[in-house]
Amino acid sequence: MAVYSGDYNGLRAARARTTFYIVSAAIVIGIVVVAGYFFLRHRASSQEIPPLPQPPIAEQSQPATPSAVPSGVEGQNVAAPAAVTPAAPAPTVVSEPNQAVEQFIAQAMALVNQQGGGSKVIEARDRLNEILPMAGGQQRAFVKEQLAALADKWLFSKGVYPEDKLCSSYKVNPGDLLASIGKQHNVPYEILMQINNIDKPELLQAGATIKVINGPFNVRVYRSTFTMDLYLQNTFVKSFPVGLGKTGMETPRGRWRVKADGKLVKPIWTDPVSGRTYHPEDTDYPLGSRWIALDGLEGEAVGKKGFAIHGTKDPEQIGTPGSQGCIRLHNGDAVTVYNLMMPGVSLVDVVD
Q1: How far apart are CA 146 and CA 149, in angstroms?
Q2: Contact present, 349 and 221 (Cβ < 8 Å)
Q3: What pLDDT was estimated at residue 117?
Q4: Cα-flanking dihedrals φ and ψ of residue 171, to 5°?
């Protein structure tokens, strides 16, 4: 019995020591873990943490500039809003061509290059003309160039395309005059002479079939680009460079109409500034080859007198502000426009 009791007590002591060691080890491990946690947390809080990247702010439709001072009762001071520091300028963005316009242009050019059938010329013209208001920049310049090239085929030639609603054939009746035929179609007789190769109006022959144009022609003048765009009804024909009014005598914006008796070839003219009267035979005659007087109808044009489209003795001033308000053309272009604009009918819009 003594031997058994001693062995039992020794076993209990060994178990107690083992338990003590296990508990002690757990306590030590726990202390290390807790100490490590607080150490890492303190270290992290002491370091600078970079902010998270923010999503880009959507571009506003209006620039971030100070709003206008609110209007108040007359004589009452109204505090202006605080000044806002302007943002740095945005990088220059090169506008991409309008892909839809590119596709339409490609379709129209396929018609231009297609062989066989005059109707393709007219279809191409009409498609390009529909595209023109949507086009901008180089696209617009290209479309205008193509329309001008097509005009040599369908307009400034003797041929008539069957599907063309702007030009048609006319059989001359006995007693018809070229001027009366032109008036009937809202175009001057001069352009009918040109496209039908008629040297003189009196050479028109009864029974002959001639080409006629269904007018009128109108023009739009852009002051910012010194450009005149010519239209037959609403179809673009071609552009001309122009000279316009100098500083203090700017060409008035608005709508004008060609005077009923306003088309003249080298008329006698008195300079309203100097008072000098010029005659066509004068070596420094300033009006060039043609004069197209204008009546003001709308905008700044209302009530203005003495304004006209005319040629020039100074072709180097085309494309610059150098006139007393008139619209100057190269002399050859002045003859072309003179032959197209119908007195009392054709309109001239001057815009910025």
Answers
A1: 5
A2: yes
A3: 56
A4: -90, 120
C-alpha distances in Å from residue 127, one per residue of 146, 151, 342: 11, 14, 27
Name all domains of the chain by residue range, CATH numbers in brackets. Answer: 98-154 (no CATH), 159-215 (3.10.350.10), 217-351 (2.40.440.10)
Region of residue 20 (phi > 0: left; psi between -120 and 50: alpha; otherwise: beta):
alpha
Nearest by Cα to 178 from 167, 166, 188: 188
**Tens digits of per-residue pLDDT, 92-142?**
434 566 888 999 999 999 988 886 655 799 999 999 999 999 999 999 999
Encoded tokens for 143? 């479309």
Give the pairing type, strands 321-323 and 277-278: unpaired
Tokens 């109808």 map to which residue? 297
pTM of the prediction?
A: 0.72
